[in-house]
Design brief:
The structure is a single chain. Strand 13, helix 16 and strand 14 form a beta-alpha-beta unit. The protein is globular, with a radius of gyration of 23 Å. A 7-stranded parallel β-sheet has the order 3-2-1-4-5-6-7, with helices on both faces. The protein is an alpha/beta fold and about 450 residues long. It has 2 domains: about 200 residues, Rossmann fold (3-Layer(aba) Sandwich), CATH 3.40.50.11720; about 190 residues, 3-Layer(aba) Sandwich (Rossmann fold), CATH 3.40.50.
Amino acid sequence: MSLRSNIRTIIFNAIWLSIFVVSLPWLAWRFFSKGKNRRGWKQKLLGHCPIAEPSSENRIWLHAVSVGEVHLLETLIDHLRQKHGDVELFISTTTETGYDRAVSLFSKQHEVFFFPFDFSWAIRSVIQRLKPDLLVLAELELWPNLIHLAAEAKVPVVVANGRLSENSHRNYQRFGILTRPMFSKLHHVGVQDQVYARRFVDLGCDKEKVTVTGNLKYDSIETNRDNSKTRMCRTVAEDFGIDREGPILVAGSTQIEDETAVVEAWLSVRSSFPNLKLIIIPRHPDRIGEIESLLSKHSLEANRRSQHGSKAIESDILIVDVIGELSGWWGLADIAFVGGSMGSRGGQNMIEPAAYGLPVCFGPNTANFKTTVDGLLSEDAAVVVRDSNELAEFVSGALVDQGNSIAIGKRAQEFVLKHRGAADRTVAILDEILLRVDDWRLDRAA
């Protein structure tokens, strides 16, 4: 390792240690009061991941941050195994919810572990234990020590479904002296669109190693409402008294700003459509107390999805406080509102409800999904609502003019269908690298 690399590693270790020490009170509070972050500390701090057995098979380490990225990996892995049935896969995640989802999806065939903090000793340990031929990072999970040490170990790093928001791009530029070498060492970047491609190149990626593959989310989305998840959700909803006799408004991936607008809009519309039901699916289920406090201000009560099977109250509102069911609940909706868009989060995934052919709306703050939003709006396949009044107007309009609602939903579904194919294009990139696995192994051994 060169002197410059040593200095860089020391700097980043110092930065991460400082952040870790400052965060200890917060981590301790989450540990003791909320039961969070109690698992995987040897993996996170020391890199004590599973040890790969000697094998002649191609070995790939795939990393996803949380639940959303894990679902993207599910699509990619399905396509990858169709072409490379003998490939050996190891999946890491950052969050506990992501870990649990990855275990449920992959653990019967593949090892799942917690992603290590970006300390050099932890990263080295994982690389030495797994001896990967390839590292695939979902969307935007770039860590300096990880990238540098993978390059040092001659492990090619590929970003799949890459994206870079304006804020991320600006922040990376601000610290370019530290981050530019990291971007330059990425072996290949498959991005969702041309805007993201330009940003990756601007930050130091080789232009020839950045490819627009499209968005993997389009490939993983369900379009048929008669699927197992939605059938299960329908049974649960009916058990809570929310049935198909009345229309259903589903507000998904919400935060408090979204829920405030949704509840106010729902109350307004109910004066004309008393049978309208409301299902709220917060981005973070542990916020349920905050949602119930909001409802109590309007003298409202809701059932909790997690209490299914116990005695339910009479209510036209259901809060889904469990992980991993959102796509099923979208399939139950007549009208969809996508959250994270009334506050400052930058929006959430609106592709799922669009794929079901629903009349979809969302708030004005959707910077994280700009390309998708621009595409939907250009096709007149979704509507932006800026406050509770506009949301109420959209919901009322959808209920009054069902022909127009069906037309909007059809355009939304067609938009999703024509953007599929990202998984095949991403696997093609991985194919090129896997063809050179023997060269990489000889290079590492030299």
